What we know:
It contains four helices and no strands. By secondary structure, it is an all-alpha fold. Helix 2 runs antiparallel to helix 3. The protein is flat. The protein starts with 11 loop residues before the first helix and ends with a helix.
Amino acid sequence: MDLKSKSPFVSWTRLKKSFYYASKGIYHTWRSEQNFRIHIVVAFFVFIAAQILQVPIVEQAILAVVIGAVIGMELINTALEHMVDLVVQTYDERAKIIKDAAAGAVFVFALTAVLVGSMIFIPRVLEIFL
């Protein structure tokens, strides 16, 4: 049976381009979105604190997952906001609802990440001071 496409399973050139375009999106979001920068800086300090407090690797993995999800959702929110701005050229209440709901989703997951972080860090900090 002949394959319809003779392209290789993995095109390293296309893969390299996809990483390049993804990095451009991250860079754009870093430059244009204050909340994204805040999430990145907080994540940096959370990972430093996890090392200082000797948080077990499994809990560090949990922190990485929730932080990665918040950062990923912030990227999706930015893309969605730009798409809405591209499609809707004038003020439209429906566009506002779309953008607000997307921002709300990021907010809810950021609060979830804070809750997870609190569950991991508070007992360790209390142990130091009590």
